[in-house]
Amino acid sequence: MRANRNQWLATRDTGIGASDIAAVLGISPRDSPFSYYWRRQLGTAVEQTEAMEWGLRHERTIADKFAENHPEYVVKPGGLYRHPEHRWMLATPDLLLHSVNPDHTDALAQIKTTRSWDGWGDPGTN
Sorted alphabetically, which InterPro entries does this protein's record hold (predicted)? Predict the structure, then answer.
């Protein structure tokens, strides 16, 4: 599993994805365009924290529960996708959601876990 993750991270480093774009635009609370640029130039990876590790460990369980709670979708694992024309543009959704109702739109899902409610807003406001 670790080898696959390292290969995925190396491929992700060949473009700009959703995790990067806030830093590129200067709106990230954790990263600046300058630090992002130099991290990419030097080839230094973001060190995985314990919280990040636990988030990855729980991802499959959360995806399974989402699928159980949403029978209106056929839930499939996501992956790493590259725009056919703008090769620098990447997307790495966690899940692909195919609607069983042809009148509804397919969707993507990104799974996130948190250890606190800080910064997530009041219930029902999202």
Answer: NF-kappa-B_Signaling_Reg, PDDEXK-like_dom_sf, Restrct_endonuc-II-like, YqaJ_viral_recombinase
Strand boundaries in 1-126, DSSP class E: 73-77, 81-82, 90-91, 95-99, 107-109
Please give the radius of gyration of the chain, using alpha carbons only, rounded to the nearest integer. 17
- pTM, to two decimals: 0.76
Chain position carrying tokens 């195919």: 98
In 3D space, the residue among 1, 122, 126, 107 whose CA is nearest the CA of residue 57 turns out to be: 1
The residues spanned by each domain of the chain are 2-109
Closest CA to 107 of 96, 118, 119: 96
Give tens-digit pLDDT for 35-55.
Answer: 999 988 888 777 888 988 898
